[in-house]
Write a structure and sequence with these properties.
Strand order of the largest sheet: 1-2
Radius of gyration: 18 Å
Shape: globular
Strand content: under 5%
Length: 189
């Protein structure tokens, strides 16, 4: 099977990445007003999806198995740490909470590679790049890879969506469960 064939045949659906990002935002925003939660969830979901920006490699002719190919260096924990450091420095520069922004970014971006390592096909992510070029899968791989494009409308696509919905239901439930409103004028003792 060629790298192009692998690319066209398998990819993890992104529902799990989005659910994890949104749940991380919810955890980190316990005391944040509800109106601020949606933008935070959107940002964390985008951060959790960020490593998959490497799909542009296919359009550039970069082979799937190359360092900068899909699931390569962009899926490494080192790159997640570098993005987190950049976010922390930017947040500090604008007077925000740099440590919490950096940690949240590290968890969101860093969750992507390990989730991909739990899929059933394709190449594993290069979790330990630049220290090693190897692609890794975990022994437990419950997440089926998804067909891309119109293939998501096939029976296989429906199956993948159903499995991911079930696997990530706790994350979706936590992220989207209505928040209890504090009574206005209530004082803390």
């Amino acid at each position: 099977m060629t790298a192009t064939r692998v690319h066209r045949g398998v990819l993890m659906a992104s529902f799990g990445h989005v659910a994890v990002g949104m749940a991380l935002a919810r955890v980190s925003a316990r005391d944040t007003p509800t109106r601020s939660l949606a933008p935070r969830m959107l940002a964390c979901a985008a951060l959790a999806l960020l490593p998959d920006a490497d799909v542009v490699a296919f359009a550039l002719g970069i082979p799937y198995a190359a360092t900068w190919g899909h699931r390569g260096a962009s899926h490494s924990l080192v790159l997640a740490a570098a993005v987190a450091l950049g976010v922390a420095l930017l947040t500090r520069a604008v007077g925000g909470p740099a440590r919490s922004a950096g940690l949240l970014t590290l968890l969101a971006v860093g969750s992507h590679g390990p989730l991909d390592a739990m899929t059933t096909g394709g190449l594993g992510p290069a979790l330990l790049w630049p220290f090693e070029q190897a692609r890794h899968f975990f022994p437990w791989r419950p997440i089926p890879v998804a067909p891309i494009g119109g293939g998501m409308l096939s029976a296989r696509g429906v199956y993948v969506v159903a499995v991911e919905a079930l696997l990530f239901l706790p994350f979706w439930a936590y992220a989207l469960w209505p928040r209890r409103r504090r009574p206005t004028g209530a004082q803390e003792s």
